[in-house]
Amino acid sequence: MGAGETRTRPRRRAVPWAVLALWIGLLAVVGPFAAKLSDVQHDRAVDYLPASADSTRVAKIEDRLPGGEATELVLVYHRDGGLGAADRDTAARQIAAITRANPLTGTPRAVPSADGTTLMYPLASTAPGTDEKKRDAFVNDVRDVARSTDGMSVVVGGPGALATDAGEVYNSLGGPLLYTTVAVVAVLLILIYRSPLLWLVPLAVAGVADYLSMGVTYGLHQAFGTTVSGQSTGVMTILVFGAGTDYALLIISRYREELRRVERPYEAMREALRGCGPAVLASSGTVAAGLLCLLAADLNSSRGMGPTGTVGVLCALVAMLTLLPAVLVLLGRRVFWPLVPAYGSEPSSRRGLFAAMGSSAGRRPLVVLAAGAALLGALALGTLNLPGPLKQQDSFAHRPDSVTALETLARAYPERGTQPITVITPTGRAEATLSAVRGHAGVASAERGRSGGGWTELSVIARGAPQSAAETATIKALRADLDGSYVGGPSAQQIDLQDTDARDRLVVVPIVLVSVLLILILLLRSLVAPLLLVAAVIAVWGAALGIGGLVFGPLLGFEGTDPGLGLLSFVFLVALGVDYGIFLMHRMREESLSGAEPAAAALTALRTTGGVIASAGLVLAATFAVLTNMGLLQLVELGFVISVGVLLDTFLVRTYLVTSASVALGRKVWWPGALSREPDPEPAGPREPAPVG
Predict the structure, then answer these.
(1) Radius of gyration of the chain measured on its C-alpha atoms
(2) DSSP line for 348-412
(3) Cα(26)–Cα(20) distance, integer angstroms
(4) Domain boundaries, the chain
(5) What is the pLDDT of residues 487-516, one digit of tens each?
(6) Which of 126, 253, 322, 653 is deepest in the core (most CB within 10 A)?
(7) d(CA 122, CA 449)
(8) How large is the greatest C-alpha to C-alpha distance in the chain, in angstroms?
């Protein structure tokens, strides 16, 4: 052994330890910030809206009025057979107790229903302001006093109660979401690796990456005011474990392959990273670029999810390219026990599933392509069956008291609204505005509220039920008729959410497509292959949404679809679907560069990467499927569509359609790059001289 080799070996052993030490130091710095992420998480509807929306302006002006933002509640007393005198006395005593214990705005007054079964007490307090913890404390204090008794049901509803119930669901996501995700990924990794130790390594590294992403996200919020919501942090965790595990699968698969050719783990890992590192970098870069396109969205929740999701993907990438290799090298070959890849050994040569699938796609590529396209097109027709926009009260998987209150009020007061619409008008025109509002055909009542800073607040009750077509028409008419005034409140916020989502789809979708297409063109040095991949993921998105349309209403009984489902599912499925396409096309390009014919290159790429892509797809689909067990339909629907889309992409589109299209196109798939041209024939060698004589 030479002196150079002797000096190199200690240095090689020191590199993994140095990487491990750097990560420990990094986590020590980031730790205090990661713990503060929940403190800056906001889940009010108004926090999701753009600054230009009417309802956002109403909320901001309310913050500046005397007392600040009001928390509005409705106490609902109900007895099926009709309320008696004792019931009304009980209600009055409870309201009096609530009034003594809490600083309320005005005196709560009873509003009896026409059928005598229900008594409604609207009340409000400005004491909590915009502090969500104080709001929750106020709501829970009221609920502690307002209790059902002797057959009379008492529930607390209204915008404040709905916000508290939604906040409880979001706050409860962190623990269950993390534990369930970890459990799902652990089971899949055990099945994939069939090793008692190996599965722990990528799982632990993903956990470290998740912790790092929480600290970085908190820093982004502090530095740039990035919106942080329960939805965005939940999706970030899913992305860290899903995408991070995908990258780990690719790296470990290549590392195992190199360990059979290279004696020392350090050199084997270096070769593995050299081989698969570009694909991992390109795929993660594509996902990050797709998510960052959400910055063009006007909706705060969507715009905030862009950088939050990007942070998750990049933290997962950095961890898997540095910490994972260091740990694997330090553990050596024994980490693969009992299936240890011995130096000089050959992998199993048995015919695999993906080789068989590739052969079937290669025999009749046009038939397979046409059948697959027809199937995806038929599934996409299910989008016509998607339920209408999701109402606020229908967004809970399990109905809390606030939703029960809304349902009781809708039955007991069919002739009037039960949720206030807020109109903010210049104080100098307050009386004229109040008169105009009261004279509107869709308005049941209107009262003057607080004044301050040149603005006056009007509380309006519509004749239509909350979020009904009649109430929506009233809100739009008020906005059109009241010049210089702003119309807000919970129902107006939902209208603004839907309108802004529609605008964002028109803006963000083209940006995502163009960005991803440009990256693929630069990476694959082709125009046809990127167009093929993008067309494939668009087809997957349509089919996944279509399956949602066939399942959400008819099978699951969902009353509506989240307005943001189309945009968010598109961004994630395009970014993540292209991710897998890069793995396949990158290997296909390698085979083509080595001289393989187009059909052989396509089938070899599928045979060699199909198993890894399938494992990665299963992990990613399973992690997003965790969202279907959460308590809000927005997350359930998003998790379902992305999980189904990833499975379609993994086992139908990548396996059959992209492969069959590549076989059918031949060299044209790389047009106009150099690989699209036929190779020059071998020059003829010098002729042997003819024998003399």
Answers:
(1) 30
(2) --SPPHHHHHHHHHHHSHHHHHHHHHHHHHHHHGGGGG---BPPGGG-BSS--HHHHHHHHHHHH
(3) 10
(4) 15-48+195-343, 68-165, 351-402+497-674, 403-495
(5) 998 889 889 988 888 899 999 999 999 998
(6) 653
(7) 14
(8) 134
Closest CA to 248 of 587, 627, 620: 620
Q: What is the number of residues in the chain?
A: 693
Where would I find the H helices in 525-632?
528-551, 565-593, 598-625
Burial of 177 (0-12, 13-18, 19+ CB in 10 A): buried
Backbone angles phi and psi of 460, in degrees to 5: -120, 135
Q: Which residues, including other chains, have CB under 8 Å from residue 210's CB and lie 6 or more apart?
A: 178, 236, 237, 240, 241, 312, 315
408-463 tens-digit pLDDT: 988 888 877 778 899 999 999 999 999 999 999 999 889 888 898 899 999 898 98
Q: Which residue carries 């006395």 as its tokens?
A: 89
Give me 639's structure tokens. 């998790």
Q: Give the homologous superfamily in CATH for domain 68-165.
A: Multidrug efflux transporter AcrB pore domain (3.30.70.1440)
pLDDT of residue 693: 35
Looking at CATH, the fold of the domain delimited by 403-495 is given as: Alpha-Beta Plaits (3.30.70)
* Residue type for position 342: A
- In three-state form (DSSP H/G/I as H, E/B as E, the rest C), the secondary structure along 43-103 is CCHHHHCCCCCHHHHHHHHHHHCCCCCCEEEEEEEECCCCCCHHHHHHHHHHHHHHHHHCC
Q: In what order do the strands lie in the sheet with 443-452?
A: 443-452, 455-462, 421-426, 486-488
DSSP code for 334: G
Q: Is 534 left (phi over 0), alpha (psi -120 to 50) or beta?
A: alpha
**What contacts 26, CB < 8 A, 6 or more positions away?**
212
Three-state DSSP class for 424? strand
Say how far apart CA 485 and CA 94 lie, in whole Å. Answer: 37
Please identify which residue in the block is written with the tokens 């996944």: 544
All residues at 6 or more sequence positions from 537 whose CB lies less than 8 Å from its CB, including other chains: 573, 574, 577, 578, 581, 649, 653
What is d(CA 305, CA 228) in angstroms, rounded to the nearest whole number?
8
Give dist(CA 30, CA 215) in Å, integer: 5
Separation of first and last alpha carbons in the chain: 61
Helices 200-224 and 324-331 sit at what angle, rounded to 10 degrees? 160
Pairing between strand 153-157 and 421-426? unpaired
- Whole-prediction pTM value? 0.84
191: β partners: none
Could you report the per-residue pLDDT of 172-190, keeping only the tens digit for each? Answer: 666 677 788 888 888 888 8
Q: What is the DSSP letter of 443?
A: E
User: Where is 259: in which H helix or E strand?
Assistant: helix 230-259
Indicate the fold that domain 15-48+195-343 takes in CATH. Answer: Multidrug efflux transporter AcrB transmembrane fold (1.20.1640)
Which class in CATH covers the domain with range 351-402+497-674?
mainly alpha
Do domains 351-402+497-674 and 403-495 share one topology? The answer is no
CA 42 to chain centre: 16
Angstrom distances, CA of residue 440 to CA of 58, 450, 455, 478, 549: 20, 22, 21, 8, 38
- Percentage of the residues of the chain whose pLDDT score is greater than 90: 32
Contact 401, 157 (CB under 8 A): yes
